[in-house]
């Protein structure tokens, strides 16, 4: 990339003005997006304006449209809702209202509009854009603006960010606010589970989502609900029978509670609403169970945004500014969104059209089509949910295989959810499933037992590792491991764990040359807070650790805001991998994050101290610095703390905090539960196929490279990659992959912390088309 291009990002916005508004229902993470739009806009040299109270503020003008400064978005990141206010606006629906809005923008020289809201808000923005030249003509005729002003504002650029807890906007994997809403729901479900178990109760929980069943569906996957009602897939006509049979089966298996999740838009095949009261009355009348209804309501919109939503909002905000400033009169209004972990730009009206098609399909009772239009990710969730909830495990084990499941490495939240879905999918396929305690050590010592359906009951929401986990590698006990593989007739191995699970897999591959018994298929599911397993962009447990760090940073920032002039240095885990420090830095608004992959010198440390000295002269009198535990042997947390203390004398105090093992604990977040559940199901399906493939002369013999894989998420898809092929991509000394996708988010962290650095705009999201994306999108 040339120096000129680098320079271009910093001057891209000179002479331009951007207005940002939030509209429609509020969603957690909107503030993160507003903050990023303001700061990146200012960084590019543009002027940025807040529009308070959504479109209403745009129509009313006056004090509602105010110029933003760098400091005016400080401390916004961790707040839920939207700080600049949102309103449902009737005036903007009328042409008269839009005329006043155009007048307000032209008078301030604003020709770029960033709208954060749901599909209604974004459609309104598109109408506004298409009428723009007519509106200007009318204003000029009426003498409200001069010809010169009209010429200066000849076209309007619009970029949308989808902020909605419902996740009902087509073309985007996740809308801003969805993950936080799931956090609220899961906190409540966990709390209700404990009381329901005490009293053997049935709970009917009603969640939001308007006409979209996403929240209900993912909640059901994440808490192992007995039944879910979603608008996209109404139950069969005899659902009352089926539901009651299902509930009593669960009870007979020894469960003390039932959980039924209802989406607020739930309907039957004839389009008649199914209400939570109706379900409660049915259960009480037919089964006589003590049944309670809880309607979650606006709790779901509240609270602090999750780490995911803060990062999503920040990344989308950056992309939105770039899309606006690169816009021309010919580029269509676009939506910036996330697909897998990549930023994409999609034509706004195509997305709105598909979103409308879903509604139309549902109104016309074409439910299968509605389901397809929701996208692959939605379909996948539904398939896995149906498998885990609605199939009775076969009674006979004839023609079955024996698969063993184990945990390796350090504990990570979500490991138990992965074990649960692996075990249950295995049983549904008619296999015998064994669980191994304490990793490879337990495999060598024979700490192995058979698991039935209820063995893993209620495991989804539990943190840590119930099977027990060790870092021991298999090589030195091949003899005993081979003996146990024969003794227990193990024909396949599912290894859930971190870097040791991967290196253990490599050792098993090597061991195949010496021991025929090791020639069985195995698959590694990455589960570690460090997110350092080659072959996967994400590992189970990293999202939970990120949220834990974030919560702590929020509290520390609050304390620092009270005492003023204070800088906190926080040490995070991760080994040599800087994922947690970088992502937590983005999510908590840190001034710097020191990591191993991005080498730093004493000059960088000096520059950071100087930057904080300057910051103390502004209204924001506090600092937050993150340091990954192994980022540098010599610049330790103590060293950095001492340096900051010395250099900051008389200007700021320093404090240090080592977060330690709390990062491995806690109840798994919705993302980790859902991700682990889907990975477990996918791994077990692969395993069954591989065992059948490897059947030779009455026994299993797997000796090909593709019979030992890592199941990983890459960009937009879950894929199986042979461990042997991943060797080239691994830095074994530092236990990290050689290339890591999240490193390209580091410049965003620095820009949002007001560093004059170059933003590499070469990796830009190009405009994609939604219809093509639908068919080509790989399932996650």
Automatic annotation (TrEMBL):
Annotated localization: Cytoplasm
Binding locations of beta-D-fructose 2,6-bisphosphate: 471, 528-532, 566, 573-575, 629, 655, 661-664, 735
Residues annotated to bind ATP: 25, 88-89, 118-121
Regulation: Allosterically activated by ADP, AMP, or fructose 2,6-bisphosphate, and allosterically inhibited by ATP or citrate.
Record keywords, A-Z: Acetylation, Allosteric enzyme, ATP-binding, Cytoplasm, Glycolysis, Glycoprotein, Hydroxylation, Kinase, Magnesium, Metal-binding, Nucleotide-binding, Phosphoprotein, Transferase
The encoding gene: PFKM
Any one GO cellular component localisation term in the record: membrane
Gene source species: Camelus ferus
Residues annotated for Mg(2+) binding in this entry: 119
Subunit note: Homo- and heterotetramers.
Molecular function terms, GO-annotated: 6-phosphofructokinase activity; AMP binding; ATP binding; fructose-6-phosphate binding; identical protein binding; metal ion binding; monosaccharide binding
Stated name of the protein: ATP-dependent 6-phosphofructokinase
Chain intervals for the UniProt region annotation (C-terminal regulatory PFK domain 2): 402-780
Lineage: Eukaryota, Metazoa, Chordata, Craniata, Vertebrata
GO biological process: canonical glycolysis; fructose 1,6-bisphosphate metabolic process; fructose 6-phosphate metabolic process
Positions bound to substrate: 164-166, 201, 208-210, 264, 292, 298-301
Pfam families with a match to the protein in the record: PFK (PF00365)
